[in-house]
């Protein structure tokens, strides 16, 4: 299982947003939706061994599960609609007890600290100042943690400094969060194959 935890700092925490303005009126939900798509989708299929956790304003976490997702399509609008449905069910989420939104989509009333505490695996903090990815052996059960278009807050950085098993950079330049997920997936996909 590979997992991606994405901190959405300006993400909505209520379902009161338009699917027609994801980049402006929904706090850059467009980027978070692209992260879900990069984490779950292949060219003609879905990664059944992948989960994406969107941490919305450190208040809620929407989990997308590749193995059980149904009716999810690789476009921002469909993914955003699932996030909106999840937030519409926010009263049903009680801490570690999720609100089930649709097959493969759940909402937790948990922020970054709580969701990291609930996950098993090797915690990898993706950061431009980390060790080069080529120098790190691909772990079993990787949990990649990254931020949206904003830097991690001081509290998030302290939390990751305390809990992360590795701090890794994916290349010489900072890249968009959804691109970072695609590169991380490729990194795990090529484990055991000759690298180019």
UniProtKB/TrEMBL annotation:
Gene Ontology BP, a term: tRNA methylation
Keyword S-adenosyl-L-methionine applies: yes
Name of one Pfam family that matches: Methyltrn_RNA_2
Main subcellular localisation: cytoplasm
Cellular component terms (Gene Ontology): cytoplasm
The protein's assembly and partners: Homodimer.
Protein name: tRNA (pseudouridine(54)-N(1))-methyltransferase
Species assigned in the record: Halobaculum gomorrense
């Amino acid at each position: 299982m590979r997992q991606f935890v994405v901190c959405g700092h300006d993400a909505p925490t209520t379902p009161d947003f338009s699917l027609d303005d994801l980049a402006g009126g929904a706090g850059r939900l467009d980027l978070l939706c692209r992260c879900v798509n990069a984490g779950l989708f292949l060219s003609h299929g879905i990664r059944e061994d992948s989960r994406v956790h969107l941490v919305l304003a450190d208040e809620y976490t929407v989990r997308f599960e590749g193995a059980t997702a149904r009716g999810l399509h690789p476009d921002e609008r469909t993914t955003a609609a699932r996030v909106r449905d999840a937030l519409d069910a926010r009263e049903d989420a009680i801490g570690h007890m999720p609100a089930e939104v649709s097959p493969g989509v759940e909402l937790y009333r948990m922020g970054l600290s709580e969701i990291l505490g609930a996950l098993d695996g090797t915690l990898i903090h993706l950061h431009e100042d980390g060790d080069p990815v080529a120098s790190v052996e691909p772990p079993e059960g990787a949990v990649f943690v990254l931020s949206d278009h904003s830097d991690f807050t001081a509290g998030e950085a302290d939390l990751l400094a305390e809990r992360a098993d590795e701090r890794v950079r994916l290349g010489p330049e900072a890249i968009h969060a959804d691109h970072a997920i695609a590169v991380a997936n490729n990194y795990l996909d090529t484990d055991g194959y000759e690298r180019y």
